[in-house]
From TrEMBL:
Transmembrane residue ranges: 41-58, 78-101, 113-134, 165-186, 218-239, 259-285
DUF1206 domain location: 34-101, 117-189, 217-284
Name this protein carries in UniProt: DUF1206 domain-containing protein
Keyword entries, A-Z: Membrane, Transmembrane, Transmembrane helix
Source taxon at top rank: Bacteria
Amino acid sequence: MASTTKNFGKVIETGKEAADKAAYSPFVEGMARLGYGARGIVYFFMGLLTVKLALGAGGRATDQQGAIAAIGNQPVGWVFLIALLVGLVSYSLWGLARAILDPLRVGHDAKGIAERIGFFCSAVSYAMLVPPTYQRIVGGPRPAHNGAQTEQAQQTAAQLFTKPWGPWLTGFVGLIVILVGLVQLYRAVQLHFDRQTEPRALSDRYVKWVKQLGRYGMLARGVLFILVGVLLILSGYRVNPGKAQGFEGALLLLLRQPFGVWLMGIVAAGLVAMGLYSMLIAVWFRLKRSQQTK
């Protein structure tokens, strides 16, 4: 019995070593870089288009699919879309790697499990951007387009409202989305984000500025998540699927408030910062090899 237990322990230890090797392999690091680059491009275009709207220089409030569509509309946009498609697949796989292989050492306690669930949800959300991006490249029937988030939210809410518990479930989802936004605000304030990376060939001064970009971007994204969650709760409360909105709807909600141009512009600039931060990670950062457990 003792021998069997010992052998089982060796198998577990071997499995952990293999998982560690995979988590910090050049392939996973390269995948993470491609993924961060793609995420950065998407958020940069989201923010840039909205900043232009705030400045009265054209542009429009947009979501991730709207940014992808805008990229595709550039000269030789299909080339950029192919690169973006590879990056989106990579970021989705990176989310799975964070959830399963645990390179961040978040552990298996309640907090760690919650973070790993978040990584898995991130993987799913970016995987959902892959089909419309591909459709945009090949000219398919459902290409990436602006307002897709709002359409999906409203269609889902309308389906839920056919059930007696639909409004309650819609409100519950809204609460979860608000919680996601609050977590991002907390992580931004505490600088608890992207702990898996360490600077390469950067001075402390530049590292500080890069982190401040990330902080500003996380704050802006957190605000958008909170607004989307509030609108979902309002949709459930009024049993009105038209109240459900995506990121572009949340940005337009800011625009309709007093000093709305400034509010929307500040958040949009934060999205630009998020994009720049993500692209800098792709270029200048690498995965930590620390074996320290959390």
